[in-house]
Design brief:
The complex is a heterodimer of chains A (about 110) and B (about 270). With about 110 residues, chain A is mainly alpha-helical. Chain A contains three helices and three strands. In chain A, helix 1 packs antiparallel against helix 2 and helix 1 packs across helix 3. In chain B, about 30% of the residues are buried. Classes of the chains: A mainly alpha (about 110), B alpha+beta (about 270).
Chain lengths: ~110, ~270
């Protein structure tokens, strides 16, 4: 993303559109995965009626289909995968960092 | 890149410093040229029969919000360690961003204080390198096998066929989880055996966390073993052969990378 600031004109932002759309869809997929996990947990805990399970399942299918459609239509399957990979990596790293607090050797000695 | 406030130099307010790359098992006094971070001149500070590989800089750590710049620094750090390894054999690597406060004399003082420990570590890694061994199992290969064996999986599969679409979808998700668990259980029978075979040709092994991320090339595979191995040069070929055999077993793939500086087996911290 490049931000060009021109004093006479308002700020204009040049965006790699595919990348932007890819990021949005990737986020939507992450959220959908979370929804799926939540739904499964409730289902396993017997906290949902059969009708509720059916409705949830249908909603998740619909969501999946529309996201797949957007990806295919815009040819961004690869971008989405790479954004999700990056998100995963960043999350893993942050968790590692918190888990091993100051585990790295950075710093100044003596 | 974290907790900047707790660093001693920040309070001390700068002065001269030395950036540390690694310790070598050699006391040559020499310069590597301007190959360091930001083209710094990299040279050795010898003490007894070892030496520190450093560059001179202000006594503060390298920090930036510019990810690209930080990546370049880390790349340079790695490059210097590789160059020193090429010249002097396996080195004791420092992790990125360790800066000593003071001049060459201060580094010498530190080397003398830590000498016996450093020498011991250098002996430990002499003629050895670190390798990463990761073993993956192939989901599509194992799925039918566990489906055949696992009663619950069988039952779920049948049940799905009788259910309306939405519920079938939810059960399918459950089924996928169950199959994955069963594959992991199946694979873990093998992984102990693989570990033992690998262990035979390694001086030391660290079992690392299994990562969910799999290299793109191996999408659809599950990591079942993730090892950092300290390997003697004379055993590298044999280890490679053992891994080659594992790689030939149906349903398993081995990823063997290295040699790396022995980051997992030595600990040089700035404190």
């Amino acid at each position: 993303m490049v931000v060009n600031i021109d004093e006479k004109r308002p700020i204009r932002i040049k965006v790699d559109e595919k990348r932007l759309l890819g990021s949005i869809v990737a986020l939507a997929e992450v959220i959908r995965d979370l929804l799926e996990r939540q739904a499964l947990r409730r289902m396993r805990a017997n906290r949902l009626t059969d009708e509720e399970i059916e409705r949830l399942g249908n909603a998740l299918i619909e969501l999946k289909e529309s996201l797949d459609h957007i990806k295919k239509e815009n040819n961004i399957e690869k971008v989405v995968e790479s954004v999700k990979g990056e998100l995963n990596r960043t999350t893993d790293e942050s968790i590692d960092k918190i888990a091993n607090q100051m585990g790295s050797g950075e710093g100044v000695a003596m | 890149m974290s907790e900047a406030s707790s660093r001693p130099t920040e309070a001390a307010g700068g002065g001269e410093g030395r950036y540390l790359y690694c310790i070598i098992n050699d006391n040559s006094e020499l310069t590597f040229g301007e190959i360091g971070i930001e083209d710094s001149r990299v040279y050795t500070i010898p003490y007894e029969n070892i030496a520190a590989v450093v560059h001179a800089c202000p006594a503060k750590i390298y920090e930036s919000n510019d990810g690209e710049r930080v990546r370049e620094w880390i790349f340079s750090h790695q490059y210097v360690i590789d160059a020193a390894t090429k010249k002097f054999g396996t080195v004791l690597p420092f992790s990125f961003d360790v800066v000593v406060k003071g001049d060459d004399k201060a580094v010498k003082g530190w080397l003398s204080k830590e000498y016996s420990k450093l020498k011991r570590e250098l002996e430990k890694i002499k003629d050895k390198s670190e390798f990463t061994v990761q073993i993956f199992c192939d989901k599509p290969f194992f799925a039918p096998i566990v489906e055949e064996k696992n009663e619950e999986v069988k039952r779920l599969k049948k049940e799905i066929e009788t259910k309306p679409e939405g519920m079938a979808y939810m059960l399918k998700l459950t089924l996928d989880d169950k199959i994955k668990d069963a594959i992991m259980a199946e694979a873990s029978n093998h992984s102990q055996d693989f570990y033992n075979r690998i262990r035979e040709y390694t001086e030391d092994v660290k079992v690392d966390k299994l990562s969910k991320r799999v290299p793109e090339k191996w999408a659809g595979k599950l990591m079942i073993l993730n090892l950092s191995c300290l390997v003697h040069n004379k055993n590298v070929k044999k280890l490679g052969e053992v891994l080659g055999k594992i790689n030939e077993i149906d349903g398993f793939v081995v990823r063997f990378t290295g040699p790396w500086p022995p980051f997992s087996f030595v600990e040089l911290k700035g404190d």
